[in-house]
Amino acid sequence: MYSERFQRNVWITNHARLMMEERSVPELLLLDLLETGNIKEKTARDLWIYKAYPERPDNLVCTAVMKGQAIIIKTVMVNWQLEE
């Protein structure tokens, strides 16, 4: 997978793949999330990318990523809440 937004390859950890399956998040939705979701920086390297999908019963989908030479998807969450 490749992200145009970040101009990097995307790697999905085994844990993230398990969470995607458990939470019914297909790769196409994950790619949309990466390309069009809102970004909240935890650090310069660690990000949360989140987006509301009103058609989903769990709505707010979020992924925790690490930005380096590639974008590494660490986990995928649903019913996520943004904390300021």
Topology:
Elements lengths: L1 E2 L4 E5 L1 H9 L4 H10 L1 E4 L4 E7 L7 E8 L3 E8 L6
Keywords:
single chain, 6-stranded mixed sheet, 40% strand, YaeB-like fold, 84 residues, 6 strands, alpha+beta, globular
Question: Nutshell version of this structure?
Answer:
The protein has 84 residues and is α+β, with helices and mostly antiparallel strands. The chain has helices at 14-22, 27-36, and strands at 2-3, 8-12, 38-41, 46-52, 60-67, 71-78. The chain has a six-stranded mixed sheet.
Structural write-up:
Helices cover 23% and strands 40% of the residues. With 84 residues, the chain is α+β, with helices and mostly antiparallel strands. The protein has a single domain, classed as YaeB-like fold, CATH 3.30.2310. It is globular, with a radius of gyration of 12 Å.
Domain count: the total is: 1
Strand order of the largest sheet: 1-2-6-5-4-3
CATH topology annotation: YaeB-like fold
Strand content: 35-45%
Number of helices: 2
Order of helices and strands: EEHHEEEE
Q: Fraction of residues in helices? A: 10-25%
Give the termini separation.
31 Å
Can you name the CATH architecture? 2-Layer Sandwich
Low-confidence stretches: none
- CATH class descriptor: Alpha Beta
Radius of gyration over all CA atoms, rounded: 12 Å
Would you tell me the overall average pLDDT? 95
What structural class do helix, strand and pairing data support?
alpha+beta
Shape: globular
Number of strand elements: 6
Q: Can you summarize the main beta sheet?
A: 6 strands, mixed
Oligomer: single chain
